[in-house]
TrEMBL record:
<protein>
    <recommendedName>
        <fullName>AbiEi antitoxin of type IV toxin-antitoxin system</fullName>
    </recommendedName>
</protein>
<keyword id="KW-0175">Coiled coil</keyword>
<feature type="coiled-coil region">
    <location>
        <begin position="7"/>
        <end position="48"/>
    </location>
</feature>
<keyword id="KW-0614">Plasmid</keyword>
């Protein structure tokens, strides 16, 4: 096998691998978009259920236990306030969550993930807003 043939085979394998990588990137993008849409819908359904439970509960019946995750509550808050820009601590105060540093850092990571997924914008350092 000569150098020319070796280079031709190498280029063919490179082209096939690049095409496969492009296909996988497209698949990841479709899945990410689907995940963001599904999580947003889940947050909307959770919020709707809370409203309906609140309207149908008698005056003396205790409130149901909190069933939404913090992540779902965060997404629901941005959906309820689409034009508002939040800092992490403002969001925590609104949701009445503990403001210790480890909890805040976890939420910063969650918000960063939502920005990367395209659900939120980051108009400034440490500030987050629902993407419109």
């Amino acid at each position: 096998m000569n150098v020319t043939e070796l280079l031709r085979l190498l280029q063919a394998e490179h082209d096939e691998t690049a095409a496969r990588a492009d296909g996988l990137r497209a698949q990841i993008e479709r899945l990410t978009t689907g995940l963001v849409e599904t999580e947003a819908r889940l947050a909307e359904l959770t919020a709707t259920r809370k409203v309906i439970d609140g309207l149908t509960r008698s005056d003396h019946e205790p409130a149901p236990a909190e069933t939404a995750t913090v992540y779902q509550r965060i997404v629901a808050t941005f959906n309820e306030h689409p034009g508002r820009v939040f800092r992490v601590r403002d969001l925590y105060e609104l949701l009445e969550l503990p403001t210790d540093e480890p909890s805040i850092n976890v939420t910063r990571s969650r918000l960063g993930r939502l920005v990367r997924q395209g659900l939120l914008d980051q108009p400034g350092r440490g500030r987050y807003q629902k993407r419109t």
